[in-house]
Amino acid sequence: MKENSNIIRHPGRLPFTFVNAVFLMLLVFIIAHIVLFLVRPKIQVYEVQPSSEDNITGTYKGIILRDEAVYASDFTGYMNCLAVSGERLSKDAQLLILDENGNLEKELHDFYYGQDILDQESLKQIETALKNAADQYDPMDMNTLRRGKADIRSSVFRNLLSDGGEDVIKQLSGNILGYVRSDISGFVLFQRDGYEGIEPEDLSAADFTASPMETEIRRNGDLIREGEFVYKMAEDNKFRLVFPLTDEEVLNLSSRKSLTVRMPDEDEITGAFSITAGSDGTALGVLFFQKYGGNYLNDRKLSFKILDRQVSGYKIPESAVVSKSFFVVDDVFLQKQGENDHYGVMKKGGSTPDFVETSVIFQSKNEEDNLVIGEGKAYIYSSSLQAGDTIFIDKENDDKTVTHLEATLSVMAAVDGVYQINRGYCVFKPVKKLSASLETSYLVISSGVSGTVKGYDRIIMDPEDVKENEILFE
After folding, report:
1. Which residue has the higher pLDDT, 138 or 7?
2. What values do phi and psi take at 449, rounded to 5?
3. Is residue 294 assigned to a domain?
4. Which domain holds residue 447?
5. Is residue 376 a part of any domain in this protein?
6. Among 10, 43, 96, 315, which has the highest number of CB atoms less than 10 A from its own CB?
7. How confident is the model at residue 296 (pLDDT cuts 50, 70, 90)?
8. Which of 318, 322, 323, 315 is nearest to 444 (CA)?
9. Residue pair 193/282 in contact by the 8 Å Cβ criterion
10. In this predicted model, what pLDDT tens digit does every residue of 413-455 receive, in sequence order?
11. Closest by CA position to 196, among listed 301, 285, 91, 64
Protein backbone atom coordinates (compact mmCIF):
# COMPACT_ATOMS: atom_id res chain seq x y z
CA MET A 1 0.00 0.00 0.00
CA LYS A 2 1.40 3.42 -1.04
CA GLU A 3 1.75 5.94 1.75
CA ASN A 4 0.58 9.52 1.24
CA SER A 5 3.12 12.31 1.72
CA ASN A 6 2.66 16.05 2.21
CA ILE A 7 6.19 16.86 1.06
CA ILE A 8 6.28 18.83 -2.19
CA ARG A 9 9.53 18.46 -4.08
CA HIS A 10 10.95 21.35 -6.14
CA PRO A 11 13.22 19.93 -8.76
CA GLY A 12 16.05 22.24 -9.82
CA ARG A 13 16.58 24.03 -6.44
CA LEU A 14 20.12 23.48 -5.25
CA PRO A 15 20.68 22.90 -1.55
CA PHE A 16 22.56 25.74 0.21
CA THR A 17 25.97 24.32 1.06
CA PHE A 18 29.38 25.66 2.09
CA VAL A 19 30.67 25.17 -1.47
CA ASN A 20 27.80 27.24 -2.89
CA ALA A 21 28.47 30.00 -0.37
CA VAL A 22 32.15 30.17 -1.35
CA PHE A 23 31.22 30.22 -5.04
CA LEU A 24 28.73 33.05 -4.43
CA MET A 25 31.37 35.09 -2.57
CA LEU A 26 33.86 34.62 -5.38
CA LEU A 27 31.25 35.65 -7.95
CA VAL A 28 30.45 38.84 -6.00
CA PHE A 29 34.19 39.57 -5.64
CA ILE A 30 34.80 39.17 -9.39
CA ILE A 31 31.79 41.32 -10.33
CA ALA A 32 32.90 44.05 -7.88
CA HIS A 33 36.40 44.12 -9.40
CA ILE A 34 34.98 44.30 -12.91
CA VAL A 35 32.73 47.22 -11.94
CA LEU A 36 35.62 49.02 -10.23
CA PHE A 37 37.80 48.48 -13.29
CA LEU A 38 35.13 49.93 -15.60
CA VAL A 39 34.28 53.00 -13.50
CA ARG A 40 37.80 53.83 -12.33
CA PRO A 41 39.70 56.41 -14.43
CA LYS A 42 42.22 54.77 -16.74
CA ILE A 43 45.66 55.50 -15.31
CA GLN A 44 48.19 56.52 -17.96
CA VAL A 45 51.83 55.84 -17.13
CA TYR A 46 54.88 57.45 -18.73
CA GLU A 47 58.41 56.07 -18.63
CA VAL A 48 60.91 58.87 -18.03
CA GLN A 49 63.37 59.22 -20.91
CA PRO A 50 66.83 60.72 -20.51
CA SER A 51 67.26 63.47 -23.09
CA SER A 52 69.68 66.09 -24.31
CA GLU A 53 68.20 68.67 -26.62
CA ASP A 54 68.05 72.35 -27.52
CA ASN A 55 67.05 74.56 -24.65
CA ILE A 56 64.19 76.85 -25.59
CA THR A 57 64.50 80.29 -24.03
CA GLY A 58 60.80 80.74 -24.56
CA THR A 59 57.86 80.70 -26.89
CA TYR A 60 57.17 84.09 -28.44
CA LYS A 61 54.45 85.73 -30.49
CA GLY A 62 55.78 87.84 -33.33
CA ILE A 63 54.66 89.94 -36.26
CA ILE A 64 56.12 89.46 -39.73
CA LEU A 65 57.04 92.59 -41.65
CA ARG A 66 58.22 92.63 -45.26
CA ASP A 67 58.61 95.07 -48.13
CA GLU A 68 55.12 95.09 -49.64
CA ALA A 69 53.84 97.41 -52.37
CA VAL A 70 50.05 97.96 -52.43
CA TYR A 71 48.30 98.67 -55.75
CA ALA A 72 44.91 100.18 -56.54
CA SER A 73 42.72 99.64 -59.60
CA ASP A 74 42.82 102.19 -62.42
CA PHE A 75 39.17 101.58 -63.30
CA THR A 76 35.99 99.94 -61.99
CA GLY A 77 35.23 96.30 -62.82
CA TYR A 78 34.76 92.76 -61.59
CA MET A 79 37.97 90.82 -60.96
CA ASN A 80 38.88 87.39 -62.36
CA CYS A 81 42.25 86.16 -61.08
CA LEU A 82 44.82 84.69 -63.43
CA ALA A 83 47.33 84.17 -60.60
CA VAL A 84 47.04 82.39 -57.25
CA SER A 85 47.82 84.36 -54.10
CA GLY A 86 51.42 83.66 -53.03
CA GLU A 87 52.60 82.86 -56.55
CA ARG A 88 55.97 84.29 -57.62
CA LEU A 89 55.67 86.25 -60.88
CA SER A 90 57.88 88.27 -63.18
CA LYS A 91 57.32 91.91 -64.00
CA ASP A 92 54.41 92.57 -66.41
CA ALA A 93 52.89 89.13 -65.70
CA GLN A 94 49.12 88.93 -66.12
CA LEU A 95 47.43 89.07 -62.71
CA LEU A 96 43.73 89.36 -63.46
CA ILE A 97 41.03 90.31 -65.93
CA LEU A 98 38.49 92.99 -65.11
CA ASP A 99 35.09 92.62 -66.75
CA GLU A 100 32.14 94.94 -66.74
CA ASN A 101 29.25 92.76 -65.56
CA GLY A 102 30.89 90.08 -63.35
CA ASN A 103 29.69 87.12 -65.42
CA LEU A 104 33.01 86.05 -66.92
CA GLU A 105 33.79 83.26 -64.45
CA LYS A 106 30.28 81.78 -64.70
CA GLU A 107 30.31 82.01 -68.51
CA LEU A 108 33.64 80.23 -68.63
CA HIS A 109 32.38 77.41 -66.39
CA ASP A 110 29.15 77.07 -68.42
CA PHE A 111 31.11 77.06 -71.69
CA TYR A 112 33.23 74.11 -70.63
CA TYR A 113 30.60 72.25 -68.59
CA GLY A 114 30.80 68.52 -69.30
CA GLN A 115 33.99 68.86 -71.36
CA ASP A 116 37.16 67.08 -70.30
CA ILE A 117 39.68 69.75 -71.25
CA LEU A 118 41.96 69.99 -68.22
CA ASP A 119 45.29 68.19 -68.64
CA GLN A 120 47.11 66.37 -65.85
CA GLU A 121 49.28 69.35 -64.96
CA SER A 122 46.23 71.59 -64.52
CA LEU A 123 44.48 68.99 -62.38
CA LYS A 124 47.62 68.71 -60.26
CA GLN A 125 47.68 72.50 -59.72
CA ILE A 126 44.02 72.51 -58.63
CA GLU A 127 44.70 69.57 -56.31
CA THR A 128 47.61 71.52 -54.79
CA ALA A 129 45.32 74.52 -54.21
CA LEU A 130 42.83 72.25 -52.43
CA LYS A 131 45.54 70.69 -50.26
CA ASN A 132 47.05 74.07 -49.35
CA ALA A 133 43.63 75.39 -48.38
CA ALA A 134 43.05 72.37 -46.12
CA ASP A 135 46.53 72.62 -44.53
CA GLN A 136 46.24 76.34 -43.82
CA TYR A 137 42.67 76.24 -42.50
CA ASP A 138 42.39 77.45 -38.93
CA PRO A 139 38.89 77.25 -37.34
CA MET A 140 39.88 80.17 -35.09
CA ASP A 141 40.73 82.42 -38.05
CA MET A 142 38.06 82.75 -40.75
CA ASN A 143 40.57 84.58 -42.96
CA THR A 144 42.12 81.19 -43.73
CA LEU A 145 38.77 79.90 -45.03
CA ARG A 146 38.14 82.92 -47.23
CA ARG A 147 41.70 82.87 -48.52
CA GLY A 148 41.53 79.14 -49.30
CA LYS A 149 38.27 79.49 -51.26
CA ALA A 150 39.69 82.41 -53.23
CA ASP A 151 42.84 80.44 -54.15
CA ILE A 152 40.83 77.41 -55.30
CA ARG A 153 38.55 79.54 -57.51
CA SER A 154 41.54 81.36 -58.99
CA SER A 155 43.30 78.07 -59.75
CA VAL A 156 40.25 76.59 -61.50
CA PHE A 157 39.60 79.78 -63.52
CA ARG A 158 43.22 80.14 -64.61
CA ASN A 159 43.60 76.52 -65.69
CA LEU A 160 40.31 76.46 -67.58
CA LEU A 161 41.36 79.61 -69.38
CA SER A 162 44.86 78.33 -70.05
CA ASP A 163 43.85 74.90 -71.37
CA GLY A 164 40.95 76.25 -73.43
CA GLY A 165 42.92 79.09 -75.00
CA GLU A 166 42.69 82.74 -74.16
CA ASP A 167 40.84 83.52 -77.38
CA VAL A 168 37.75 81.87 -75.86
CA ILE A 169 37.35 85.04 -73.79
CA LYS A 170 36.23 86.89 -76.89
CA GLN A 171 33.50 84.29 -77.45
CA LEU A 172 32.19 84.55 -73.92
CA SER A 173 31.87 88.25 -73.26
CA GLY A 174 32.29 91.56 -74.97
CA ASN A 175 32.41 93.35 -71.64
CA ILE A 176 36.10 92.80 -70.81
CA LEU A 177 37.70 96.02 -69.59
CA GLY A 178 41.27 94.76 -69.77
CA TYR A 179 44.12 92.90 -68.11
CA VAL A 180 45.97 93.97 -64.94
CA ARG A 181 49.70 93.24 -65.01
CA SER A 182 52.27 93.24 -62.22
CA ASP A 183 54.32 96.42 -61.87
CA ILE A 184 57.30 94.59 -60.36
CA SER A 185 58.52 91.01 -59.95
CA GLY A 186 57.78 89.20 -56.70
CA PHE A 187 55.09 87.34 -54.78
CA VAL A 188 51.53 88.44 -55.54
CA LEU A 189 48.98 88.60 -52.71
CA PHE A 190 45.31 89.49 -53.10
CA GLN A 191 44.95 90.56 -49.47
CA ARG A 192 45.98 93.32 -47.08
CA ASP A 193 45.72 93.84 -43.33
CA GLY A 194 47.02 97.35 -42.68
CA TYR A 195 50.57 96.34 -41.69
CA GLU A 196 51.96 97.00 -45.16
CA GLY A 197 54.79 99.55 -45.03
CA ILE A 198 55.02 99.33 -41.22
CA GLU A 199 58.47 99.52 -39.55
CA PRO A 200 59.32 97.80 -36.22
CA GLU A 201 59.47 101.22 -34.55
CA ASP A 202 55.81 101.80 -35.50
CA LEU A 203 54.59 98.81 -33.46
CA SER A 204 53.40 98.91 -29.84
CA ALA A 205 52.66 96.30 -27.18
CA ALA A 206 48.97 96.37 -28.15
CA ASP A 207 49.79 95.08 -31.66
CA PHE A 208 51.00 91.77 -30.19
CA THR A 209 48.05 91.18 -27.86
CA ALA A 210 45.21 92.30 -30.13
CA SER A 211 42.84 89.72 -31.65
CA PRO A 212 43.52 88.48 -35.22
CA MET A 213 43.47 91.34 -37.71
CA GLU A 214 40.62 91.70 -40.16
CA THR A 215 42.18 90.91 -43.51
CA GLU A 216 40.74 92.36 -46.70
CA ILE A 217 40.80 89.55 -49.28
CA ARG A 218 40.06 89.99 -52.99
CA ARG A 219 38.34 87.11 -54.82
CA ASN A 220 36.93 86.25 -58.21
CA GLY A 221 33.71 88.14 -58.78
CA ASP A 222 34.52 91.03 -56.42
CA LEU A 223 33.60 94.46 -57.71
CA ILE A 224 36.69 96.66 -57.59
CA ARG A 225 36.12 100.36 -57.93
CA GLU A 226 38.66 102.78 -59.32
CA GLY A 227 41.20 103.70 -56.65
CA GLU A 228 40.39 100.70 -54.42
CA PHE A 229 42.93 98.08 -53.32
CA VAL A 230 43.27 95.21 -55.79
CA TYR A 231 46.59 93.41 -55.03
CA LYS A 232 49.99 93.79 -53.40
CA MET A 233 53.49 92.51 -54.21
CA ALA A 234 56.20 91.23 -51.85
CA GLU A 235 59.36 91.87 -53.81
CA ASP A 236 61.57 89.07 -52.44
CA ASN A 237 62.07 86.41 -49.76
CA LYS A 238 63.41 88.79 -47.13
CA PHE A 239 61.36 89.44 -44.01
CA ARG A 240 61.62 90.63 -40.42
CA LEU A 241 60.15 88.90 -37.38
CA VAL A 242 59.42 91.37 -34.57
CA PHE A 243 58.51 90.35 -31.00
CA PRO A 244 58.27 92.04 -27.54
CA LEU A 245 60.93 91.43 -24.88
CA THR A 246 60.90 91.70 -21.09
CA ASP A 247 63.66 93.58 -19.25
CA GLU A 248 65.24 90.24 -18.30
CA GLU A 249 65.17 89.02 -21.90
CA VAL A 250 66.74 92.27 -23.10
CA LEU A 251 69.57 91.70 -20.60
CA ASN A 252 70.07 88.08 -21.67
CA LEU A 253 69.90 88.71 -25.42
CA SER A 254 71.55 92.14 -25.75
CA SER A 255 74.93 90.66 -26.68
CA ARG A 256 73.54 88.33 -29.36
CA LYS A 257 74.04 89.15 -33.04
CA SER A 258 71.99 86.23 -34.38
CA LEU A 259 69.36 83.78 -33.15
CA THR A 260 68.04 80.45 -34.41
CA VAL A 261 64.28 80.01 -34.18
CA ARG A 262 61.88 77.13 -34.75
CA MET A 263 58.90 78.24 -36.84
CA PRO A 264 55.36 76.75 -36.77
CA ASP A 265 56.19 74.55 -39.78
CA GLU A 266 59.05 73.05 -37.69
CA ASP A 267 61.74 74.67 -39.87
CA GLU A 268 64.76 76.01 -37.95
CA ILE A 269 66.13 79.22 -39.46
CA THR A 270 68.81 81.67 -38.33
CA GLY A 271 68.53 85.42 -38.65
CA ALA A 272 70.44 88.57 -37.71
CA PHE A 273 69.23 89.86 -34.34
CA SER A 274 68.87 93.39 -32.98
CA ILE A 275 66.84 95.20 -30.31
CA THR A 276 64.83 98.37 -30.89
CA ALA A 277 62.03 100.31 -29.18
CA GLY A 278 58.41 100.41 -30.32
CA SER A 279 56.21 103.50 -30.57
CA ASP A 280 55.24 103.17 -26.88
CA GLY A 281 58.75 102.37 -25.65
CA THR A 282 58.26 98.60 -25.59
CA ALA A 283 61.52 96.71 -26.12
CA LEU A 284 61.28 94.75 -29.37
CA GLY A 285 63.48 91.99 -30.72
CA VAL A 286 63.97 92.09 -34.49
CA LEU A 287 65.11 89.08 -36.49
CA PHE A 288 66.06 89.71 -40.12
CA PHE A 289 66.02 86.80 -42.58
CA GLN A 290 67.48 86.94 -46.08
CA LYS A 291 65.29 84.08 -47.32
CA TYR A 292 62.36 81.79 -46.51
CA GLY A 293 59.85 84.67 -46.67
CA GLY A 294 57.88 82.85 -49.36
CA ASN A 295 57.00 80.18 -46.77
CA TYR A 296 55.11 82.65 -44.57
CA LEU A 297 53.34 84.94 -47.03
CA ASN A 298 49.91 84.23 -45.51
CA ASP A 299 51.19 84.76 -41.96
CA ARG A 300 51.30 88.09 -40.18
CA LYS A 301 51.17 86.97 -36.56
CA LEU A 302 52.68 83.66 -35.50
CA SER A 303 54.21 81.82 -32.53
CA PHE A 304 57.79 80.59 -32.64
CA LYS A 305 60.50 79.28 -30.34
CA ILE A 306 64.04 80.55 -29.80
CA LEU A 307 66.69 77.84 -29.67
CA ASP A 308 69.60 78.84 -27.47
CA ARG A 309 71.93 76.26 -25.94
CA GLN A 310 72.14 72.54 -25.24
CA VAL A 311 70.65 71.33 -21.98
CA SER A 312 70.65 67.84 -20.48
CA GLY A 313 67.82 66.50 -18.39
CA TYR A 314 64.82 64.22 -18.33
CA LYS A 315 61.85 64.72 -20.63
CA ILE A 316 58.42 64.33 -19.01
CA PRO A 317 54.83 65.23 -20.00
CA GLU A 318 53.80 68.70 -18.83
CA SER A 319 50.53 67.21 -17.56
CA ALA A 320 52.42 64.98 -15.08
CA VAL A 321 53.59 67.92 -12.94
CA VAL A 322 51.64 68.69 -9.78
CA SER A 323 52.31 71.38 -7.17
CA LYS A 324 52.46 70.42 -3.49
CA SER A 325 52.83 72.56 -0.34
CA PHE A 326 55.64 71.82 2.15
CA PHE A 327 56.34 73.35 5.56
CA VAL A 328 59.65 75.23 5.76
CA VAL A 329 61.61 74.33 8.93
CA ASP A 330 65.17 74.48 10.24
CA ASP A 331 66.78 71.16 9.38
CA VAL A 332 67.92 70.82 13.04
CA PHE A 333 64.41 69.53 13.87
CA LEU A 334 64.78 66.48 11.64
CA GLN A 335 65.66 63.14 13.16
CA LYS A 336 65.48 59.47 12.27
CA GLN A 337 63.50 56.82 14.10
CA GLY A 338 61.81 53.51 13.49
CA GLU A 339 62.89 50.26 11.90
CA ASN A 340 63.37 51.85 8.48
CA ASP A 341 65.26 54.85 9.91
CA HIS A 342 62.85 57.30 8.25
CA TYR A 343 63.11 61.05 8.65
CA GLY A 344 60.52 62.79 10.80
CA VAL A 345 59.87 65.36 13.51
CA MET A 346 58.62 65.28 17.08
CA LYS A 347 55.17 66.86 17.35
CA LYS A 348 53.65 68.17 20.58
CA GLY A 349 50.10 67.13 21.38
CA GLY A 350 48.11 64.91 23.68
CA SER A 351 49.57 63.29 26.77
CA THR A 352 52.76 62.22 24.96
CA PRO A 353 54.62 63.67 21.97
CA ASP A 354 54.41 61.81 18.67
CA PHE A 355 57.12 61.07 16.13
CA VAL A 356 55.71 61.94 12.69
CA GLU A 357 57.34 60.49 9.60
CA THR A 358 57.66 63.09 6.84
CA SER A 359 58.66 63.54 3.24
CA VAL A 360 61.77 65.73 3.23
CA ILE A 361 63.53 67.96 0.68
CA PHE A 362 66.98 69.15 1.77
CA GLN A 363 69.20 72.02 0.73
CA SER A 364 71.14 70.94 -2.39
CA LYS A 365 74.89 71.46 -2.67
CA ASN A 366 74.36 72.45 -6.33
CA GLU A 367 72.80 75.93 -6.33
CA GLU A 368 71.51 75.52 -9.92
CA ASP A 369 69.45 72.47 -8.94
CA ASN A 370 68.40 73.70 -5.51
CA LEU A 371 64.71 73.67 -4.58
CA VAL A 372 65.09 74.78 -0.93
CA ILE A 373 65.39 78.50 -0.28
CA GLY A 374 67.70 79.28 2.62
CA GLU A 375 70.81 77.57 4.01
CA GLY A 376 70.05 75.10 6.79
CA LYS A 377 66.38 74.82 5.80
CA ALA A 378 64.33 71.78 4.86
CA TYR A 379 60.89 71.28 3.34
CA ILE A 380 58.72 68.69 5.11
CA TYR A 381 55.30 67.21 4.47
CA SER A 382 52.99 64.79 6.26
CA SER A 383 49.22 64.46 6.28
CA SER A 384 49.53 64.44 10.10
CA LEU A 385 51.01 67.95 10.20
CA GLN A 386 48.97 71.15 10.04
CA ALA A 387 49.69 74.85 10.30
CA GLY A 388 49.90 75.82 13.97
CA ASP A 389 51.35 72.48 15.12
CA THR A 390 54.41 72.69 17.35
CA ILE A 391 57.47 70.58 16.65
CA PHE A 392 60.47 70.27 18.96
CA ILE A 393 63.79 68.57 19.51
CA ASP A 394 65.92 68.02 22.60
CA LYS A 395 69.43 68.48 21.23
CA GLU A 396 72.38 67.23 23.22
CA ASN A 397 75.33 69.62 23.27
CA ASP A 398 79.02 68.78 23.38
CA ASP A 399 79.09 69.37 27.14
CA LYS A 400 76.31 66.79 27.61
CA THR A 401 73.71 69.46 28.37
CA VAL A 402 70.42 69.36 26.50
CA THR A 403 68.88 72.28 24.62
CA HIS A 404 65.14 72.23 24.04
CA LEU A 405 64.11 73.82 20.71
CA GLU A 406 60.56 74.44 19.51
CA ALA A 407 58.99 75.85 16.34
CA THR A 408 55.44 76.46 15.17
CA LEU A 409 54.62 75.30 11.65
CA SER A 410 53.51 78.26 9.56
CA VAL A 411 55.74 79.11 6.58
CA MET A 412 54.98 77.03 3.48
CA ALA A 413 56.55 76.65 0.05
CA ALA A 414 55.11 75.22 -3.17
CA VAL A 415 57.17 72.49 -4.82
CA ASP A 416 56.59 71.05 -8.29
CA GLY A 417 56.78 67.30 -8.56
CA VAL A 418 55.43 64.11 -10.10
CA TYR A 419 53.99 60.85 -8.77
CA GLN A 420 56.38 57.95 -9.25
CA ILE A 421 54.86 54.45 -9.20
CA ASN A 422 57.86 52.14 -9.56
CA ARG A 423 56.65 50.03 -6.62
CA GLY A 424 52.96 50.15 -7.47
CA TYR A 425 52.01 53.08 -5.23
CA CYS A 426 52.23 56.87 -5.71
CA VAL A 427 55.34 58.55 -4.31
CA PHE A 428 55.83 62.31 -4.70
CA LYS A 429 59.16 63.19 -6.32
CA PRO A 430 60.26 66.84 -6.61
CA VAL A 431 61.27 68.18 -10.03
CA LYS A 432 62.87 71.38 -11.33
CA LYS A 433 61.82 72.60 -14.76
CA LEU A 434 64.63 73.59 -17.10
CA SER A 435 62.70 74.43 -20.25
CA ALA A 436 59.85 73.52 -22.51
CA SER A 437 60.66 70.57 -24.73
CA LEU A 438 60.84 70.81 -28.49
CA GLU A 439 57.88 68.45 -28.43
CA THR A 440 54.58 70.09 -27.62
CA SER A 441 53.27 69.47 -24.06
CA TYR A 442 56.58 68.12 -22.73
CA LEU A 443 59.14 69.56 -20.29
CA VAL A 444 62.82 69.04 -19.65
CA ILE A 445 63.60 68.73 -15.92
CA SER A 446 66.92 68.74 -14.09
CA SER A 447 68.55 65.40 -13.34
CA GLY A 448 70.63 66.93 -10.50
CA VAL A 449 67.85 67.49 -7.96
CA SER A 450 68.16 65.28 -4.88
CA GLY A 451 65.32 62.76 -4.65
CA THR A 452 63.95 63.49 -8.13
CA VAL A 453 62.94 60.90 -10.73
CA LYS A 454 65.55 59.08 -12.80
CA GLY A 455 65.66 57.73 -16.29
CA TYR A 456 63.20 54.86 -16.88
CA ASP A 457 61.17 55.64 -13.75
CA ARG A 458 57.43 55.32 -14.26
CA ILE A 459 55.28 58.36 -13.47
CA ILE A 460 51.56 59.22 -13.63
CA MET A 461 50.65 61.37 -16.64
CA ASP A 462 47.53 62.87 -15.03
CA PRO A 463 48.05 63.29 -11.24
CA GLU A 464 44.44 64.44 -10.74
CA ASP A 465 43.37 60.80 -11.13
CA VAL A 466 45.39 59.56 -8.14
CA LYS A 467 46.37 60.39 -4.56
CA GLU A 468 49.74 60.24 -2.85
CA ASN A 469 50.55 56.80 -1.42
CA GLU A 470 47.56 55.32 -3.26
CA ILE A 471 48.20 51.69 -4.25
CA LEU A 472 47.62 51.26 -7.98
CA PHE A 473 49.25 47.91 -8.67
CA GLU A 474 49.68 44.99 -6.32
Report:
1. 138
2. -75, 130
3. no
4. 45-52+318-465
5. yes
6. 96
7. very high
8. 315
9. no
10. 999 999 999 988 889 999 998 876 666 688 888 888 888 999 8
11. 64
